[in-house]
Each structure stands twice: as C-alpha cells, then as structure tokens.
Specification:
Length: about 130
Amino acid sequence: MKTKILESSYIRFLFSGGIVFILEYALTIFLTELLKIKPHLSYALALFIESLFLFQYHKKITFKFKSQDNRIKLRFGIIFLSSYILNWGLTYLLIKKLTYFVAIPIVTTILSPIIYFAYKKFVFTKN
C-alpha cells in the first residue's frame, strides 16, 4: 500500500510542488521584505526561477517520462506559461484584497490540481 502511494505521479507532483512552493514563497518574502520589491514583482521573479527547475523534475521524477521528443518542451512551455499568467494574475488580484502572505497559498492550492492534470494530459502523455 505504501509503495503504491509513493508510485503515484500525483503524490510526486504534490511533494515536488510542496518543496518548490516553500522555496518560491521564501524567495518572494525575501525579495519583498528585505529588498523592498513590490510583492507581485517578487512573486513573478520567484515563479520564473521555479520554471527553470520544474520541467526536468516533472519529466524525470513526477511523470517518469522517457521520450526525447522536443514537442514536449513546447507543450510544457505552453502549459507553464498559461499557468504562470493565471497564477500571477490571480495572486495580483488577491493581493489587492489580502496580503501576499495569504494570497499566494490560496492561489497555489486552487491551481495545483488543475496544473497537474494539464501536464499529465497535454505534456507527459504516452501519445
């Protein structure tokens, strides 16, 4: 049972997402609080830095995808850019009503399952 759970790509996605979220959140706080960069700009930079890591991680670990087809990079880029814009846009709107401390986790929680299924269906697919 424990092995089955660990073999789930969704569990691996949540695990990596949790680690990346902590780093992204910490970077956003550092840039905002210590360097006095506006929260929405700090978050945009943190999301960009996250993107540099996520493609290889999701390809090799989350989805255990072996194909070398370059089209997956394009599909990943499209999904990532779409999720980046949606994530940043929703966070930007929420920051107007809430603090960025609260807005970022809310948006991340809502979008995570949607992003996982988009990657699974359109990027790391067996077709």
